[in-house]
Design goal:
By secondary structure, the chain is mainly α. The chain is built from 3 helices and no strands.
Length: 92
């Protein structure tokens, strides 16, 4: 019985060392993706904010149109295009 426990302890030690090597390799492989994934997460958070606060954003657009009527047409076209894209992405 003692021999079997020794074998199990040795196998456990090998498996722990192997798991540590795999974690290190995984960290090295994932590191180049860390910054792009953070930026994508920020982008998704911004899209969620726009979706959840669309009334405030529309109100800001109207205020901008009232205060700067010359540039409003250009920005309204961009806003309309963004709105359509958000509707398609949101499935509404």
């Amino acid at each position: 019985m003692n021999k079997k426990l020794t074998q199990l302890a040795e196998r456990r030690g090998r498996l722990i060392a192997q798991a540590a090597e795999q974690r290190t390799a995984l960290m090295q492989n994932v590191e180049p993706w860390r910054i792009p994934l953070v930026l994508a997460d920020y982008g998704l958070a911004a899209l969620r904010f726009i979706k959840n606060h669309s009334t405030w954003i529309a109100g800001g657009g109207i205020l901008f149109a009232v205060l700067r009527p010359g540039q409003a047409g250009k920005w309204l076209k961009r806003g309309w295009a963004a709105w359509q894209i958000m509707k398609q992405l949101g499935g509404k």
